[in-house]
Amino acid sequence: MRFVAPDEWCPSDGIQLDQDSLDVVRSHVSQAVQAGPGAGKTELLAQRAAFLLQTNTCTAPKKILAISFKRDAAKNLKERVAKRVGPELSGRFDSYTFDAFAKGLLDRFREGLPDWIQPSRNYEVSFPDWKIWKEFGDRPNLVAPFDQETFNQDTVKNGHAYLGRTPSPFPMNRPQPASAVEAMTLGWWTNQLSRSPQTLTFDMVKTLAQTIIHLNPPIKRAFLNSYTHVFLDEFQDTTLPQYAMLKEIFCGSQSILTAVGDNKQLIMTFAGATSERFRQFSTDFSAQNVALASNFRSNKRIVDIVNSMAKAIEPNSITVNCSKTADPIPTISDGIVAFPSDDDERKGLAEFIFREIENGSLNANDFIVLVRQKADDHENDGLRAAFEKEGLVLRNEARTIGESGISLQDLSSEPLAQAVVLFIQVATGDRRYRAYLDLVQLMSTSHGSMSERSAEQFGLEQILRKAKKAFDELASSSDGSFSWDVLVNLITTQLGEDKLRRLAQEYKNPERVSKIKNGIAAFLAECSEGAKTWQEVVDRYQGVNQVRLMTVHKSKGLEAHTIIFFSLKDSSFYYRADMDEEALAFFVAVSRAEQRVFFTRGHGGIVTLEPLYDLLTQAGVPNILAFP
Questions:
Q1: Helix/strand/coil percent split, the chain, to 5
Q2: Which of 92, 161, 320, 359 has the fewest CB atoms below 10 angstroms from its CB?
Q3: CA-to-CA distance for 550 and 375, rounded, in angstroms?
Q4: Of 177-186, 307-316, 379-388, 467-476, which gets the smallest average pLDDT?
Q5: What separation in angstroms does the CA of 549 have from each of 201, 334, 393, 577?
Q6: How high does pLDDT run on average in the chain?
């Protein structure tokens, strides 16, 4: 492998970086990089990976570890790096979510745990709901002197994974509880490890990962020897258990960490994220603080709105520069539209989007409709009907599919779901996309030599031929044996259950895999209703020519030509909404827009939301009589 001298290295794929971004890419020290929306944070990390690998600054065979909050972000970063540096170098770039990284560590080194908290090899990851938290809190079955204690569901949820107020590793021997809450925590662990199979939440997994590192210095040294550089994406949303695990491994080491995020886009406060995380990181890791001031996403008017809101939320925030100064700004780029009734609001929105599409300049995917919460209620209270009247398809990304318990947006990001749909495209001869190459890339696991990768690809080709034959036989059957459940099972069986389980750590949990497969089958069944071709089914599944509806929290990382914040009134928000947190969520919503952003409200008061309207007034967002 021929490497490039550091002073001769240039950003790949024609990417243009300003000097501040270039300095981050070339840095030899840990940095806390705060960058606003549209700053290209993911691309910044991809280019830094390219620099470290192509110049051998990350000395072979050492690796880069990237940890993201969301699975699709981890996947996106991995794909970008592979595109920038090729398969050989990208084999030294490991990209995980916090959950996947912690679980991988536990699965490899669980025998380094004390017997009293060591799970069996076949443990499963659980996702308790409020009923389970409440049921345990009502009857924790603790021993004296805590045998009469009960706990509310929030206490159980927030305190189940670790002892004390902050995440910390467990000791070698089971401790005696010093308080009722500690007795509850230990009781929860006993309860979960007494099950068959044993069950752990992801926060419990992180505590065990932290404990493994703390009690086993050789394992810690192995990680530090492997990873000389660490990337942390969307760092502002890092929770306490995640940060504690990270700190246990890398604090005080020679590894160079790059944390990238934006406190103004903090949306995970309910999960323990805090605006102090960057300051804590800078102190713990002696990191330089860097602020990037470019927005590559939005036009100048949107950037002006974002800057105004940022100053109101955080007076010391830097002013962001618009990189699209040459872009023409629409005649009406923003505004607040008040309607006399909720029906008029729904009707007006649907008619506006229909007109825009009819004019030919935009398509349905250029719009995102955001709501604060309860997207299902908005959809079922007439919004879907208003869209259907205009011949539009509203895609509620927040709704649960069938009985799977999985939202459409989460289902769409599941690697298993992607594999099934890609295979349908391959099997039905859909040549509009690069489905075959994407499927092979998704299912490939080898990062070895060229011959090893060629051998694996040949094996995959053999599997796909066999699977396509079985698919054709089922799809053309006339004996009534066809069903979407049967089809999904056939595809996953033919592709190889073992190989598919490697796509995600949680796929080792059969119950989780079953739910995902049920969700895929249920949604394919929906998409097939009235469809005349396989291509039409796939397009519906993938959301082609559909207007997306989602909550603000789920819009993170997305962007669209036109953003509409729908139903901006008191009754659409939480009863006891924290306006400081709502301002952050509001900021996230506005910053998704590339060219236009609008706010609508029908009948209802805006007393509680007055601070949000003040933000819009300060930014010069006008009241307009109707959509343009």
A1: 50, 10, 35
A2: 359
A3: 6
A4: 467-476
A5: 30, 19, 10, 22
A6: 87
Q: Cα–Cα distances in Å, from 504 out to 300, 342, 507?
A: 40, 43, 6
Which residues contact residue 569 at a Cβ distance below 8 angstroms, ignoring those fewer than 6 apart?
A: 601, 602, 604, 605, 606, 609
pLDDT at 446: 44
Question: Cβ distance 569 to 601 under 8 Å?
Answer: yes
Range from 374-378, 443-447, 490-494, 536-540 carrying the lowest mean pLDDT: 443-447
Share of the chain above pLDDT 70, in %: 93
| φ, ψ dihedrals at 251, nearest 5° | -65, 130
Here the tokens at position 383 are 């919004």
For the ranges 118-127, 206-215, 501-510, the lowest mean pLDDT is seen at: 501-510
pLDDT of residue 60: 93
Note the pLDDT tens digit of each residue in 9-35.
Answer: 988 767 778 888 899 999 999 999 988
Model's pTM, two decimal places?
Answer: 0.78
Cα–Cα distance measured from residue 492 to residue 614, given in angstroms and rounded to the nearest whole number = 53
What's 6-103+211-295's CATH class?
alpha beta
Domains 6-103+211-295 and 300-393+545-624 share a fold: yes
Report whether pLDDT(273) > 50. no
Q: Is the pLDDT of residue 2 over 80?
A: yes
Reduce the DSSP state of residue 31 to 3 states and report it. Answer: strand
Handedness of CA 281, 285, 289, 295 (dihedral sign): negative
Three-state DSSP class for 266?
Answer: coil
What's the CA dihedral at 626, 589, 270, 288 to 10 degrees?
-150
For residue 233, the surrounding DSSP H or E stretch is none
* Residue 29 CA neighbour count, 13 Å, CB half: 11
At 244-267, the pLDDT tens digits run 999 999 999 999 999 998 766 544
Q: For the domain covering 300-393+545-624, report its CATH number.
A: 3.40.50.300
What's the CA gap between 32 and 285, in Å, rounded?
A: 9
Radius of gyration over every alpha carbon of the chain, rounded to an integer in angstroms: 25
What six digits make up the tokens of 282?
A: 């800078």
Q: Give the lowest-confidence range in 245-259, 373-387, 571-585.
A: 571-585
Q: How far apart are the first and last CA of the chain?
A: 56
State the CB neighbour count (10 A cutoff) for residue 200: 22
CA dist 48 and 56 (Å) reads: 12
Residue-level pLDDT at 304: 93
How far is it between the farthest Cα atoms of the chain? 73
C-alpha distances out from residue 305 to 266, 334, 597, 598, Å = 18, 9, 10, 12
Going by C-alpha positions, the residue among 212, 213, 271 that lies closest to residue 238 is 271
Torsion of CA 516, 521, 527, 530, to 10 degrees: -170
Could you give the CA distance from residue 67 to residue 99 in angstroms, rounded to a whole number? 9
Rounded to whole angstroms, the Cα distance separating 20 from 39 reads 12
Instruction: Quote the distance between the C-alpha of residue 186 and its chain's center.
Output: 31
